[in-house]
Write a structure and sequence with these properties.
Helix content is 35%, strand content 31%. It is α+β, with helices and mostly antiparallel strands. A three-stranded mixed beta sheet has the order 2-1-3, with helices on one face. The model has no long low-confidence stretch (mean pLDDT 94).
Length: 84
């Protein structure tokens, strides 16, 4: 359940960063989460698809690293994107 909130917070942060930087689609996304987190590439793709976001698609490379960081947190390490 807590990963659901984390997934939503990640979504909102990523969308906000893309708006600030005028990105229409994400090419590379790198995120770090706690080792026990259930956040993964598939859950991120599903979350964006459920919200009908065009930022992430088949063109997007997603890397989710799991490290001993604060539980229930995530760090957006890198977002590379482009305008259409």
């Amino acid at each position: 359940m807590h990963d659901t909130f984390l997934n939503q917070n990640l979504y909102e942060s990523i969308v906000g960063l893309c708006k600030e930087n005028s990105m229409d689609r994400i090419l590379n996304l790198e995120i770090t989460v706690h080792t026990h987190s259930h956040i993964c590439e598939e859950s991120i793709r599903e979350h964006f698809a459920d919200r009908k976001s065009k930022l992430i698609g088949g063109w997007t490379n997603i890397l989710v690293q799991k490290k001993e960081i604060e539980p229930l947190t995530a760090t957006i390490e890198q977002i590379d994107g482009e305008k259409k």
